[in-house]
Input
Amino acid sequence: MKHEGKVSFYLKKNEIKEDGSCPVMVRLRVGTTEEVFSAKLNVPADLWASGRAKGKSKTAIDINRRLDEIRASALSHHRELSAIRENVTAEEVKTLLLGMAHGQETLLAYFRAHNEKFDKRVGVNRSENSAKSYWIALNHVSKFVAAKYNLSDIPFTALDRSFIDKYDLHLKIDCGMAPGSIVLHTVRLGTIINHAIADGIITADPFAGYEPERPERKPKYLTGKEVKKLMTTPLASPKHYLIRDLFLFSCHTEMPYGDMCNLTQDELSVAEDGTVWIKGARGKTGVDYQIPLLDLPLQILERYRDTAPDGRLLRSNTLSVALTSEQ
Output
């Protein structure tokens, strides 16, 4: 149930000053909750009537303009919070109105700051692909907030479980995402929320109790017959042969694409028994690995020797060009 917001003003006459002025107090009501706080404004007691300054003097006009600004700002914050969830309290509106430290923090601004810091760690202990995924996730959350709530940003205090459920539905219905993609984007958002909790910006986790639909994992594999067919089927162009060779190299070494792209001669070594080994570290995690090379991957390396740029052993950069040209 959404509660109506009301703002009124009164003089704190028991604190009258020597010049005859009194502090103006704000009474903010939202539903059954109420907050009273200072408007940080003093008004001559003889100029006050029915919650406003009376008359048309410049002083009265300035005072009333300031009161109208406070009322409009409070009601605007109330509308923004109420558009997102129910049971908004007067304390939450006051927090935003007074610009308290934790009330000023907004999701998209915080998300953007996180991504900018993340970008600086790319190449050190973070991958470029991970950085891109955070920017894509921010873009989706930004579009959701704009489309669903007509807001350019949203305060952390406005986030609750209903926000997460609506975002999940947005990704599924409006963006047409599969369960696996929804999991990726909600995990990225969840990471930002966890950072905000760790920073003391919010205390309650809006993801509490949320469980995304997870795709059913079906093992995918090629049979020996299918691999043989793949290896012997004539192809239409040199680009297709390159793509096939890279795929077969990955199959026989279990190397991920990113590491295969950056493979150099320095990572090859020959054991006493003549076996050639790849010894390196995962680009994404830094975990060391050692892979013995069988005949087929050795033949592939030999086929592309001295054809790749920057000392790499495989013409993997050509792969993206080949794929793009075929789409």
Notes: The chain has three domains: 5-99, 104-198, 224-326.
